[in-house]
């Protein structure tokens, strides 16, 4: 099994590790230290060697931050991880606070005047650092870049080694465009910004631009490194030589020079007098400092690979379709197992997650999970980012709900899907809440919108059916998804939080409204969908974008209150189920995923409401 169900930290980490960090801080004359969750690559999911916040505090969530002062400390996260952080962190060592309200900057405004607060310039983007600097200066304190990082020194020999997974070609039959064409295209974009070169530090951009994949980050096939792309399309790619496979130099071609990470300082020095594009939201502050010290002119602009990477080409979209049909067959076999077997044997969340992984493995094409499976039984399903580990693992119970959120990494696409199932007979209240979530989900699935519309503008469309019932959910409605890359991909998202990035043709986003009753159960329905090109609407005047559904797996009809659906909503569910049967059914009828019992179950599950 790829997924571990063991705790990797415990609340004792604070008492053990804070004194070590404070001793190293004192050696450098620091009164405080910023400890972001992000690493040198601004990744969401980190290799073990870069889990600094987890090591000092015990908190392992994918969003958070910490501050260590001489006499107190605080750790921050968002509402998705409230229960987790309180279980993992010793409240006697750390204040446990919300990362939005009050947030790290507000907390820093209370540090003693004259304090010197250290930060590692490799771990903060300039955009993130600016708010922290203003807060520290408002307190009459000073923010100081430090190297080496006191926390790294405190971690010492116990720190795991940096990952060295091999970097391999990602064939054009999956990528849809030669890397040489991408380099020329991005080089022209750099030139249009007035740049001579761009410094790329986001691993996803390296993977996309050079048509390569790696394995340095759990659940995401990323190669950690950096690159300098010149406006003429030539490039230097900085990778640990241990990761360079025999076929890689030939794959990259003569216009791409491979170099070791130790050579990047000299390469930046050679950019003296040049105009260099760098993303202030994604690249670490250390790169801006180095370029300015070298005499380069820094152009602050979005990573020019970000939008082309997010706007999938026709080959990537077709690959995603096929990956989702394959994954849908695995999920259908799992859903049949839940209803036919698990509903009687009442297994625990670990067995549920392992069973889903086995069905995905049976496709013969699974490279990895796209994230650790969330299998939430009863009250654990009410925790949006719950992960079944250790003593938290529960057995499913008759009369409750089971929420399962998982996905797979395939060479032709990345999947992410959530289904909520009744265990035994559903109550009237469970059916009502599920149907309200389904109505919200349908609203986002069928929406049409003009060019220039952002996900922020669409978010209320999804929430409206729930708002009308006095309900809401405290997470985003949708996130971008990569093509055999990250399950969370920017720059677009669908959420209350302001995001001005328009949704573009080819972007893949999730549609995942939910309802969570703390202490009882949770409901979420999630599919992935791709933005379609603007098309005319009969009788209309302007072409409109829409969404094509990519995920195909049946909804639990035991949880649908048909009387609550409009005629159009019923028609949508029936059409979706008919398409699910047409696309997934043939894989269950023959081949490596053949499963006669699951096929008969699917036919019944997809019958008209």
Structure description:
- By secondary structure, this protein is an alpha+beta fold.
- The protein has 19 helices and 27 strands.
- Helix content is 36%, strand content 19%.
- The strands form eight sheets. The protein has a six-stranded mixed sheet with strand order 4-3-2-1-5-6, with helices on both faces. The chain has a six-stranded mixed sheet with strand order 12-11-10-8-13-14, with helices on both faces. The chain has a three-stranded antiparallel sheet with strand order 15-18-19.
- The protein is globular.
- The model has no long low-confidence stretch (mean pLDDT 97).
Quickly describe the structure.
The chain is of the alpha+beta class and 609 residues long. The chain is 36% helix and 19% strand.
């Amino acid at each position: 099994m790829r997924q571990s169900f063991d705790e990797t930290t415990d609340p004792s980490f604070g008492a053990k590790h804070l004194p070590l960090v404070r001793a190293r801080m004192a050696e450098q004359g620091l009164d405080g230290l910023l400890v972001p969750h992000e690493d040198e690559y601004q990744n969401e999911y980190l290799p073990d060697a870069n889990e600094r916040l987890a090591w000092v505090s015990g908190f392992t969530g994918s969003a958070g931050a910490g501050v260590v002062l001489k006499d107190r400390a605080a750790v921050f996260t968002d509402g998705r991880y409230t229960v987790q952080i309180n279980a993992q962190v010793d409240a006697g060592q750390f204040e446990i606070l919300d990362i939005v309200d009050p947030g790290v900057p507000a907390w820093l405004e209370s540090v003693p005047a004259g304090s010197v607060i250290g930060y590692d310039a490799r771990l903060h983007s300039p955009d993130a650092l600016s708010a922290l600097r203003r807060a520290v200066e408002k307190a009459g304190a000073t923010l100081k870049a430090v190297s080496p990082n006191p926390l790294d020194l405190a971690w010492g020999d116990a720190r795991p080694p940096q990952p060295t997974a091999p970097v391999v070609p990602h064939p054009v039959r999956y990528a849809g465009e030669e890397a040489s064409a991408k380099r020329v295209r991005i080089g022209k974009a750099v030139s249009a910004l007035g740049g001579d070169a761009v410094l790329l530090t986001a691993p996803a951009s390296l993977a996309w631009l050079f048509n390569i994949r790696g394995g340095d980050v759990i659940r995401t096939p990323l190669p950690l490194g950096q690159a300098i792309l010149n406006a003429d399309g030539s490039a230097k790619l900085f990778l640990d030589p241990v990761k360079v496979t025999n076929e890689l130099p030939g794959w990259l071609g003569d216009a791409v020079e491979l170099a070791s990470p130790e050579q990047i300082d000299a390469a930046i020095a050679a950019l003296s007098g040049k105009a260099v594009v760098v993303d202030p939201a994604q690249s670490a502050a250390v790169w801006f400092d180095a370029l300015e010290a070298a005499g380069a002119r820094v152009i602050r602009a979005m990573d020019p690979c970000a939008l082309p990477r997010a706007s999938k080409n026709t080959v990537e979209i077709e690959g995603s379709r096929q990956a989702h049909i394959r994954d849908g067959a695995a999920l259908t076999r799992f859903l049949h197992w839940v209803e036919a077997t698990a509903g009687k044997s009442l297994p625990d969340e670990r067995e549920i997650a392992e069973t889903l992984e086995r069905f995905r493995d049976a496709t013969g094409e699974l490279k990895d999970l796209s994230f650790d499976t969330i299998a939430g039984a009863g009250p654990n399903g009410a925790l949006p980012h719950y992960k079944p580990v250790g003593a938290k693992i529960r057995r499913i119970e008759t009369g409750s709900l089971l929420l399962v959120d998982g996905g797979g990494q395939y060479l032709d696409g990345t999947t992410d899907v959530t289904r909520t199932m009744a265990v035994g007979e559903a109550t009237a209240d469970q059916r009502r809440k599920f149907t309200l979530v389904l109505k919200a989900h349908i609203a986002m699935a069928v929406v049409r919108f003009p060019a220039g519309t952002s996900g922020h503008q669409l978010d209320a469309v999804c929430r409206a059916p729930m708002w009308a019932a006095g309900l809401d959910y405290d997470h985003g409605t949708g996130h971008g998804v990569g093509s055999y890359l990250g399950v969370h991909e920017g720059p677009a998202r669908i959420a209350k939080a302001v995001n001005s990035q328009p949704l573009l043709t080819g972007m893949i986003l999730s549609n995942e409204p939910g309802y969570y009753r703390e202490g009882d159960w949770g409901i979420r329905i999630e599919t992935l969908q791709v933005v379609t090109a603007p098309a005319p609407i009969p009788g209309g005047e302007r072409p409109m974008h829409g969404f094509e559904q990519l995920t195909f797996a049946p909804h639990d009809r035991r949880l649908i209150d048909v009387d609550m659906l409009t005629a159009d909503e019923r028609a949508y569910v029936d059409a979706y189920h008919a398409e699910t049967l047409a696309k997934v059914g043939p894989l269950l009828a023959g081949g490596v995923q053949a499963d006669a019992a699951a096929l008969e179950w699917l036919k019944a599950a997809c019958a008209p409401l």
